[in-house]
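User: Here's a structure from my thesis project, written as structure tokens. My advisor, Dr. K., wants to see whether a designed sequence matches the one we expressed. Can you design one independently, without my sequence as a hint?
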């Protein structure tokens, strides 16, 4: 009888959920962190990346050997580069040139072609350029910002995992918002299980620049975003996010990126306002892809 070993694609999801130990939450609250950096390409974006390609294949919209295009600030690009390598696609990724060197190197390591726009042009220009390239016949844009297969991945996997891992005791879900796929899909599932669960979304405070999360101009707001699925939107400063990120590494051994620090900072702020709650937040990636930016320097 032959043994059926898993492939790397089978390793996406089923990430650990751990409690904070030394950073104490007030008011007898429990803060739990979903370690999405444990995914094979290192972030929560592994889930929608694989979902968008697999479901597009199932519908006959793309075929191995074709070219895929995506605008990304980093994590989705790395995840898509991995998924494209697994399934045999060419991958063209467009991103602002101020993203960390580790992110750029990871994308090209998986064989993706990297196209950069300026920091001033930002993700808005990256998204426009992706559509221009598609119109010119250079490939197909997966478009994480409007693709329902993005939140669907979290509805099918992240939400059910959290419900099972907390044995249905979760009372609050806190997530940074970029494309909003994580919060949309997870909210949909959790609200079906218990409408009383409060969904808290985090966005950068005005003037703050936190990799992976945005305050979108109205014209660029992701079309997958449904405001009704988020009970509360909280502004997080870059300083609070970075300070909490460093505290997580030094006091909890949780080595993560800035948006993850923002998520925990938001969870701790929430814990000051509630009692006896089980608050779950997303640690969306690992800290090693931010080292060149200096955010971990003493």
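Assistant: Designed independently from the structure alone:
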């Amino acid at each position: 009888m032959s043994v059926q070993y898993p492939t790397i694609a089978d390793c996406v999801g089923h990430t650990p959920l751990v409690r904070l130990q030394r950073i104490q939450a007030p008011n007898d609250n429990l803060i739990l962190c979903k370690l999405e950096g444990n995914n094979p390409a290192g972030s929560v974006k592994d889930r929608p990346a694989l979902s968008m390609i697999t479901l597009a294949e199932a519908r006959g919209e793309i075929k191995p050997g074709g070219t895929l295009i995506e605008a990304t600030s980093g994590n989705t690009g790395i995840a898509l580069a991995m998924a494209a390598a697994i399934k045999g696609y060419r991958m063209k990724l467009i991103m602002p040139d101020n993203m960390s060197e580790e992110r750029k190197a990871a994308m090209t390591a998986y064989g993706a072609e990297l196209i950069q726009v300026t920091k001033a042009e930002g993700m808005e220009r990256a998204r426009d350029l992706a559509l221009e390239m598609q119109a010119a016949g250079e490939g197909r844009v997966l478009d994480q910002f409007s693709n329902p297969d993005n939140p669907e991945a979290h509805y099918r996997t992240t939400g059910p995992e959290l419900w099972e891992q907390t044995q249905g005791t979760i009372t609050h879900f806190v997530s940074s918002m970029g494309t909003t796929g994580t919060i949309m899909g997870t909210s949909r599932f959790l609200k079906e299980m218990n409408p009383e669960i409060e969904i808290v979304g985090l966005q950068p405070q005005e003037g703050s620049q936190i990799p992976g999360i945005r305050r979108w101009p109205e014209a660029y707001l992701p079309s997958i975003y449904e405001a009704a699925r988020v009970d509360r939107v909280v502004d997080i400063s870059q300083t609070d996010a970075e300070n909490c990120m460093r505290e997580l590494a030094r006091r909890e051994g949780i080595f993560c990126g800035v948006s993850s620090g923002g998520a925990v900072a938001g969870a701790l702020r929430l814990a000051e306002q509630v009692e006896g709650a089980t608050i779950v937040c997303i640690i969306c990636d690992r800290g090693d892809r931010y080292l060149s930016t200096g955010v971990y320097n003493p």
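When you compare it with your expressed construct, this may help: The first strand starts at residue 17 and ends at 19.
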